[in-house]
Specification:
Blueprint lengths: L4 H14 L1 H21 L4 E10 L4 H4 L9 H12 L2 H10 L9 H14 E6 L3 E8 L2 H58 L7 H67 L7 H30 L4 H4 L2 H80 L5 E6 L12 H26 L6 H8 L13 H33 L4
Amino acid sequence: MQLLPEQIAGALVNESFHSRRMVVAIFVIVNILMLSVGLLWPKSYTASTSILVDERNIIQPLMQGAAVATDALDRSKNAREIIFGRKIMDTILDYGGWLKANPSVEERETLIDAIKKQTSITPVGKNILRIEYRDADPDRAFRVTEKVADLFMQESITAKAAESRAAFAFIEQQTQEYQDKLTRAEEELKELRSSNVDATTNEGQLAAKITDIRARIETTTQELREAEAREGSLQRQVSGEAESTADMFRESQYRARIGELESKLDTLRLSYLDTHPDIVQVKQQIQALTDNLRAERTRREEASRSGKTTESAVSNPVYQQLRREQSQNQSQIDALAARLGELQRQLQTEIGRGKRIHSDDARVAELTRDYQINRDIYQDLLRRRENARVSMNMDRERQGLTFKIQEPASLPLAPTGFRFWHFAAAGMVLGLLIPLGFLVARLQFDPRVRVVSQIAAVHKAPIMAVVPHLWSPAELKSLRLELMLLASVVLGTVGVSGIVSAMRSLKVL
């Protein structure tokens, strides 16, 4: 059967009365235990300090774009690594007096782990770091907190300066390397251009020159062919036609002279007889010319058959003119042939130079590209080197990142965490709650009937009357004494808790 709240309350009162000794015993035991724990609980004093990371100073606007100050958020992320580093932890161990007992290596590691657990580093706002340290000794908590903040600022500034110096040294090294690369590229370009003058000739000029040479070759070849054809014609004329022309010219002279003499002979016969001396003389002249004509014809035929040049042909002015023309034409043929050979040599030279130019152009393009890339990187490194120099100088002068104690550490006067009165109050509360919890559990699991209405509900029968427990005078007297004793024990326990708490507050204990 489910009990109502008022029924449960009444049952708890009855159970508390019947189990009064157990309830008082549990109350006293719980309070004594909590007071003991409170007395043995170590005190913890917390000292804290706030550090302002000042990144807004008068130099920053002037150095905009030339140097970058450290971001406070980045410093807050790295603060734990910096503070919990081996260097600062060893210094804190010595400063806090932990090394006076000459701890071993394992003990030192244990102490460092304990210090790390007792140290809290949290960002407060955008530019403020808060460092807290807990310790049983308030003076040591104050001194360690102050020392940690000081070491953190020194280490951060030193690390920032070292980082700037390292960055400047690295950029300086890279700048020198690229300067050497740039110098080597310039030397290679200079050597390539000086060793190959043709590299300065562009493809348009070379193509125009090759086209001009080929045109001149075609013209010279045509002229050579014409000269060779003319040479053949002159050769034929010299070998036969010129001599025939000269002989025929001489024979025609003989015939013309014979014709004149015959005409003169006819004229003389009109006046004289054949025996006239003039006619006889003319006949003799005609006979002599006729003999000469036959002899000339015979000589020409013999010369033609033998292929020799007759003396008359040699002395012939036409023949001499043909020989001169043949000699001039042969000289022209030789000149044209020499010119054609020279032009062909020039053409091959220009073609070879074109191939070299293409190869050199590829090499020049590659060297030029490397030179331009190295020059751009070198210029950028020069700018970065100067920026790094400015940053290094700013860090040396402590202008790039400034730490300032916003809230200095103070000596903690009161311990933090659980205090003695917390344990005393907890003893009172637990001393009441634990017995009540035990009684409630017993009500739930104990089958005995404690409420009258349960009988009527279970047996479906009305209750006529309830007979209460009657106490005898002796029992009442004994009960009163017992209740007074239990009340005294409870009050004494409460009084002892109050007295010990007061003495603890006054630092008597």
